[in-house]
Amino acid sequence: MTERFKLYTKILLAVLYCCLTDNIRAQDSMAQWVNKNAIDLQDDTSDQVNDFRFLDELVSCKCLVGLGEASHGTEEFFNIKSRISKHLISSIGFKVLAFEMDEEVAMLLDRFVRTGNGDIRKELLAYGLYNSAELYELFQWIYRFNSSLPDEDMVRIMGFDSESYWSNPLARDSLMADNFNRQYDVLTEKAILWGHNIHLAKDTTMAAYRTMGYHLASRYNDQYYLILTDTYKGTYHVLENGKLKSYPFSGQANATAAALGEVKYPAFFINMNNRCNPWKDKQYMITNLYANWQGDPTPLPVLPRASFDALIYIRETTPSIPLDDER
User: Fold this and answer.
1) Residue 326: pLDDT band with limits 50, 70, 90
2) CA distance 296 to 273
3) Which pLDDT value is given to residue 29?
4) Which of 89, 152, 211, 322 is the most buried (most CB within 10 A)?
């Protein structure tokens, strides 16, 4: 009996060693592939619109480009998504910027970017995690961009969310997709979608949860191109009693995020549709930071290529800048 137990123990240890070795090799393979194929975004504070010209060949023929975010309260995500939005608007002709935002609030922002009327600072200050200097600057830029254009060529702001959806989380994504489609069918222009990763992902491995992105991908097929954002550690803003509060977080328990943390670039873009992508058939655990503090991130399981087309990874991130910040 003792000899049999020793034999079983040896077999079990051998299996565990092989699994561990395979996992390490897989992570190393991923990091090596990213180092070879990623586009360095280290200067993520740059305001140069043309920094994202590499996107032209990927999205010029798409009608929808989704810009996800791992949290609604991160400065780097807001900054880099603003820069991408400016490039898509000024260089490729995107005319709609649709937010995970109440439709009524978006109408006020839309009025401002087309006419200059209204106090968008007041609206953003009152709108939770969109109380953001980064977003305020983006809307000001769109207003200036629109100022020399006829009404029919102006960039429009759209909101596809509603507070009435929040009481039913499992139905919310379907309702947001329906709301977007209803408004988009009238505008029929190239659109940028701005929302949380968990909503814009084309699919997840959670069978009971159908994302907004799933419904959009079912309708628009390969005309929907999605860029998700991810991070490894840092600090971000959440809402507590209606006010912004910052919390630190770490993705140490997430093997995928930890592997990407070893990539030579602190910030990078990687095209997941690359034919040689070693992740194409593997589950990716993306960092998932909620609007209210729930401790360190609970990773969101997604599948590269099936769930998203490209990834922007920023190793360490910081909280968004509130409009009422005295800095």
Assistant:
1) very low
2) 30
3) 75
4) 211
Single-letter amino acid code for the residue at 310: A
HSE at residue 287, side-chain half, CA atoms within 13 A, is 35
Q: Delineate the domains of the chain, giving CATH numbers in brackets.
A: 38-317 (3.40.1660.10)
Burial classification of residue 87, based on how many CB atoms lie within 10 Å of its CB (0-12 exposed, 13-18 middle, 19 or more buried): buried
For residue 88, count other CB atoms closer than 10 A to its CB.
25
pLDDT of residue 7: 45
- Identify which of 255, 253, 306, 227 has the alpha carbon closest to the alpha carbon of residue 28: 255
Q: What is the 3-state secondary structure (H, E, C) of 147-203?
A: CCCCHHHCCEEEEEECHHHCCCHHHHHHHHHHHHHHHHHHHCCCEEEECCHHHHCCC
Tokens of 278: 């070693």
Least confident stretch, 108-112, 191-195, 278-282, 309-313: 278-282
CB 203 within 8 A of CB 217: yes
Q: What is the residue type of 16?
A: L
Continuous segment of H or E residues that includes residue 49: none
Identify the CA nearest to 201 among candidates 285, 95, 113: 285
pTM given for the model: 0.88
> Minimal CA–CA distance to 308: which of 220, 215, 254, 229?
229
d(CA 83, CA 46): 8
- The helix (H) or strand (E) run that includes residue 65 is strand 64-67
**28: confidence class by pLDDT, cuts 50, 70, 90:** low
Output the six-digit token pair for 81. 């998504």
Q: Whose CA is closest to 203, among 277, 311, 304?
A: 304
High-pLDDT (> 70) share of the chain, % = 87
- CA separation for the pair 178, 86 (Å, rounded): 26
Considering only residues 296 and 322, tell me which one the structure prediction assigns the higher pLDDT.
322
165-179 pLDDT per residue, tens: 999 988 999 999 999
Q: Residues 6 or more apart from 242 whose CB is under 8 A from it?
A: 128
